[in-house]
Design a protein that fits this description.
The chain is mainly alpha-helical. It is 75% helix and 0% strand. The protein has 8 helices and no strands. Helix 5 runs antiparallel to helix 6. It is found in: Cell membrane.
Length: 208
């Protein structure tokens, strides 16, 4: 859904990417630094109950990480290794965010909220399946671009609700996690369905 905004976002980020490129920083460095920042914020601040400041810290590095593509385009350093690194680091960042929330939900400062902690872990696992389903489908030659909750939507929702919870807004974290769980489940089902239809439409090779 938010992927439809990529052309607009690209036009905004291109001049920033040009400025960053002049410093000599490579796209892969941006990817790694952005991921490390997210991991530090998520596992260093979320488990301590600092959801608002943790979200601000994570958001800063998420925005920084978005520059890797812009820098790659303006420098011509687009590569399959860079794409692989970016996708893999995205999974690491997602794991850190949801794990940090889960640790806080079962920690002493938050009380024992094992139900919500389990929900956070479900969102993590389901989000990983969403990404894997697309990668595996495309590796087999299928098109798998459907889904109401791709990574951009999932990260946006979890950061917004975590930040609002840190400001004291009641029930927003629980509502957000339930929304993410439902949307991620639907997205998995959508991707299974679209790949199944494409597979069924392909002719079965004849055996002689």
């Amino acid at each position: 859904m938010l992927n439809q905004l990529r052309p607009v976002l690209g036009r905004v980020l291109t001049p920033i990417g040009q400025a960053v490129a002049r410093t000599g920083v490579t796209p892969n460095v941006i990817t790694v630094v952005g991921t490390v920042g997210v991991v530090v914020g998520a596992l260093g601040l979320y488990p301590r109950g600092q959801l608002f400041w943790g979200t601000m810290f994570i958001t800063a590095f998420v925005l920084f990480d978005m520059l890797d593509g812009a820098v790659a385009r303006v420098t011509g350093k687009i590569s399959r290794w860079g794409a692989f690194l970016d996708s893999t680091m995205d999974r690491v960042a997602d794991a850190a965010i949801f794990s940090g929330l889960a640790l806080w939900l079962v920690g002493e400062r938050a009380g024992t909220q094992t139900g919500l902690a389990a929900l956070a872990l479900y969102c993590l696992v389901c989000g990983a399946v969403v990404s894997y389903a697309k990668a595996r489908a495309e590796g087999l030659g299928f098109v798998c671009d459907v889904g109401i909750a791709e990574r951009a939507e999932r990260v946006l929702v979890v950061l917004v609700v975590a930040g609002l919870d840190g400001l004291g807004v009641p029930y927003v974290l629980a509502a957000g996690l339930w929304l993410l769980a439902a949307a991620s489940t639907v997205t998995v089902a959508q991707r299974f369905a679209v790949v199944y239809r494409q597979s069924a439409a392909q002719p079965v090779p004849e055996h002689k």
